[in-house]
Amino acid sequence: MIKxxxxxxxxxxxxxxxxxxxxxxxxxxxxxxxxxxxxxSQTAATNVNSTASWEVESKANGTTNDPKAVNWVDMPDSDNxxxxxxxxxxxxxxxxxxxxxxxxxxxxxxxxxxxxxxKTESELSDMHExxxxxxxxxxxxxxxxxxxNYRALWRDGLWLPQISKTVPVGYGPKGLMLSFMINQTDCTxxxxxxxxxxxxxxxxxxxxxxSNGEFFQALxxxxxxxxxxxxxTNSLEKVAADFKAxxxxxxxxxxxxxxLHLAKAIGPDxxxxxGVENLITWDTNDYIYADMTRNFxxxxxxxxxxxxxxxxxxxxxxxxxxGIGNGEFKPIEQTFKDQTQALxxxxxxxxxxxxxxxCSQKTFKRALRDGSDxxxxxxxxxxxxxxxxxxxxxxxxTGRNLNAGFSWVPIPELGLVITPMFESLIPNCEYPGCKVTxxxxxxxxxxxxSSVLTERPRLSIQASIEVKF
Length: 469
Known about the structure:
about 30% strand; three-stranded antiparallel β-sheet; alpha+beta; 2 domains; twelve-stranded antiparallel barrel; disordered N terminus
């Protein structure tokens, strides 16, 4: 029996497409030696169909002076190769070829060969166990920086659920990103009061008169980690209205408003963002569809890796967002006060003031919109908990009320994000019974208009398609 050097052994483990190979460097100098005739008990090893193994016996100087030495060189695809051989073909040469590696063959005992075989099987077994342990760890996408174009997150080539719905996020886009969002609320501000319902049919009936749809588009580009990112948002409320009315002949850009946003990251998990939503109104005379509130905000978002080893798909990440904002992020009673003051400033009749001449309907509507925009700065925040891959629980404080829900990505590669929410959970001044002083100097407190109130949590759902170029 002959045994070979482990450096020249090739181990192939074909499980799940994984292979392991053991190699050695060609710096080892050794010679080939002709061996005496094998004992009768070992003649089976000379059969061309049997498997031979060998080992290297090194020489200090890498050469041999034995005149009987037999020198061998590899002859790939040689005609001298036996037809039934799976190994290399060899031929006898008189001198060592240049840069050849001489090797000396030696005969091993049966005990030595058995020991080598057992050791090889043990090594293969260890490799197999190591692979099984490695393959049991699920694939995760938690290594790279976090990005976002509008609300949904993007990391390591996959779209992830939102971590808020109304409150902006601090993360910015990477490269070029495009988002299309549709938001539907079953009873919106200005179409109330939102009354409780006891049956699904009653809820459907209220939707026909009190629900509201909004369409948003966001285009973002840049690199928030190495530079900055810019996001351009557009609200196209006319699109949702035309879709509901099945009217596709009108100008879909009527009522369009554009916002500008800037994002900067200070690490893979921390980023800040500021912007003005609905900053530019395309048609300044449109007070019907161009009625989205203009608001400034500044927020920061922090990702907390709560499952560091990433061996489980459960509860791996927590996202915290906090900042300030106005406009839409004002309490409803503050918006009411600001609108009352705007009406007074525009010369329109309001609490404690009757003008000599009534203001026009256009002036009245413009004053109401101006009173909704900007104004008092308020704290805003959100918490997003990754419950499982593709599913986040969300709660957010909008400056006006508390919302809660979840965000789900059914197919991360597709970029479809679905976010249903319960809004206005706290019975504050959005609910009946709240009275405020409408304007400075007015002696009485008054109730807010019923059209802006609700008697139950509002239901909303947002769906978006996210694209990364």
